Amino acid sequence: MIRSSIFLGIISILISSCIGDDIKFDTVEQSVSISNPIDSLKVGASYQFEAIYLNNVGQEEAQDIMWESSNEEVVSITSGGLVEGLTEGMTTIFASVQMPGDSFVDSIKLAVDEDLEQEVIGGAKGGTIQSTSSYLLEGDFTVSSINGGGIQIDIADNYRASTALPDLVLYLTNNPSTNAGALEIGSVQVFEGAHSYIIPNVDIGTYEYLLYYCKPFRVKVGDGKIE
Predict the structure, then answer these.
(1) 195 within some domain
(2) 109-136: burial string, b at 16+ Cβ within 10 Å, e else
(3) Residue 36 belongs to some domain of the structure
(4) Which site in 79, 106, 170, 206 is 20 to 30 Å from 197, CA atoms measured?
(5) Which is it for strands 75-77 and 82-85: parallel, antiparallel or unpaired?
(6) Which pLDDT tens digit goes with each residue over 171-188?
(7) Boundary residue ending a domain (79, 94, 113)
(8) How far apart are CA 224 and CA 187, in angstroms?
(9) Which of the 8 DSSP states describes residue 225?
(10) Is there a domain that residue 181 lies in?
(11) Within this chain, do residues 218 and 158 fall inside the same structural domain, yes or no?
């Protein structure tokens, strides 16, 4: 009986030692990262930044990302991460997540240049923006594939849009009757003249329409077929 107790005690110690050595704490440091960084942008062009938050087990988790520019005279940036080049210069773009008692930040340097040209590859498509409402909306546009992946939408000089709407938003879609299921590019910041949008990770043949939509009123304002 004594021998059995001693034997069981030894086995218990060995098992405990083995398990103790194998126990790992699987937590990691939480982080935010800008997932589609660029280092340069042309004056007048727009770009949609994206960021992801990884929790303490290294898994992507939905959190509110806060966006900031260190120099708002060089670029403007919306709460959703859409930047527009305003004038030549340098700025730092910050993406952050605020948590109780802590914050997590990623940043990149961004140069804005008047003479910067985005390298366009492949054939371009285009069309005409037309109003489908009582609000002014008109102009021509082209859509081109760009080097590194994604597309560039160039709005022509003859573009004009009403400033009377509280939040006019541009989308890419295959159903111009609704913004449901559409890819939101961002709120319209330019209401007259030429400007550009750069949309990463989108193929030129994925969408058939530009859609202009007033989000607060849930009203379609106009569209343009990509041909």
Answers:
(1) yes
(2) ebebeeeeebeeeeeebbbebebeeebe
(3) yes
(4) 106
(5) antiparallel
(6) 999 999 999 999 999 999
(7) 113
(8) 17
(9) E
(10) yes
(11) yes
Q: Which of 92, 85, 91 is nearest to 116 (CA)?
A: 85
Sign for the CA dihedral angle at 5, 7, 8, 12 comes to positive
Compute the residue count for the chain: 227
Residue 2 lies in a domain: no
The count of C-alpha atoms lying within 13 angstroms of the C-alpha of 219, restricted to the half-sphere facing its C-beta, is 12
Same domain, 37 and 134: no
Angle at 194 between CA 188 and CA 195, to 5 degrees: 50
What is the phi-psi region of residue 101: left when phi exceeds 0, alpha when psi lies from -120 to 50, beta otherwise?
left
Which CATH number does the domain housing residue 70 bear?
2.60.40.1080
pTM for this structure?
0.63
Q: Which amino acid is at 213?
A: Y
Q: Give residue-wise pLDDT tens across range 121-134.
A: 556 889 999 999 99
Q: How far apart are CA 170 and CA 212, in angstroms?
A: 5
